Amino acid sequence: xxxxxxxxxxxxxxxxGTVSRVLNDSPAVSNHTRQKVKRTIANLDYAPNPNARRxxxxxxxxxxxxxxxxxxPSYVERLRGVQHALVDxxxxxxxxxxxxxxxxxxxxxxxxxxxxxxxxxxxxxxxxEQQVDRFLESGVPAVLVDASHEKICHVVVxxxxxxxxxxxxxxxxxxxxxxxxxxxxxxPFQHSAEDRYIGYRQSLEDADIPYQENYKLTGxxxxxxxxxxxxTLLTSDTPPTAIFAASDTQAIGVLDAAKGxxxxxxxxxxxxxxxxxxxxxxxxLTTISQPLFDSGVTATNLLLKxxxxxxxxxxxxxxxxxxxxxxxxxxxxx
Length: 334
Prior knowledge:
- By secondary structure, this protein is α/β, with parallel strands linked by helices.
- The chain has helices at 5-12, 16-23, 31-44, 50-57, 73-86, 101-111, 129-138, 159-172, 191-206, 223-234, 248-260, 278-282, 292-309; strands at 62-67, 92-97, 119-123, 142-145, 153-156, 178-183, 216-219, 242-245, 270-275, 286-289, 316-318, 322-324.
């Protein structure tokens, strides 16, 4: 037969409320009684009903993570950070993958209630004003990662500065024919790529290098799509001597295209990426490094602290970026 909390109370000769307080680590129990109840729980092999515990505390013990894609390396690395930060907590992790704005609004509405989750991490999905107001009215703590809003705590890097850093590196090497490759810039999910593009344009302007529209390549995210985009550009009448890809995955696609066309990297083409995912080190890819794992850890710790304190003060946590020089960038031959 299943052992119940009443069985524990009867065996320990205490009230059901006392057992409940012991299970919930309430200080309103003497040490002697606490130890007696714990021994009884162990002797009877009692396992609390998680649903009953949630109801008694008014908590779900769940933290939701909402993000655009569950498989891209940068998102996986951030999720590793989230999981690491939750290991010693009592919270379960629930994932929601978003593929379009309508689905984003649907899940944001669903999660804007304390009966669903105790806290929410939103990765790379900037909420609109209506969605932000819904979170604030519901009282569900939320933290943004790789997205920002003045009313919600957010953990970000300066992607405009990152775009500048990547482009300036190529300019300092002597490149003037520099292309930019990224996801589509006019979608709700790609604000980071758009900021990196802004940094790219500003660096060209600062160096008095004319911007060339045909050097701007955008398409669906992914290594294969980046390969196709880069191949078209590299076989054009005026190919660039350098390509700045807005993600390492896309930069690796560019390297694939160069290899297929027998273009030597970095002698004939320099390539720089962004993110510093694990594969970038294996490919000896020059890149802009951002702390993906640490962003997950930082955001989760911030969320847990907010849940515990019930404070709703919003602030911006800016993480550092840096240039990692490897073997895919060099001065142009000519």
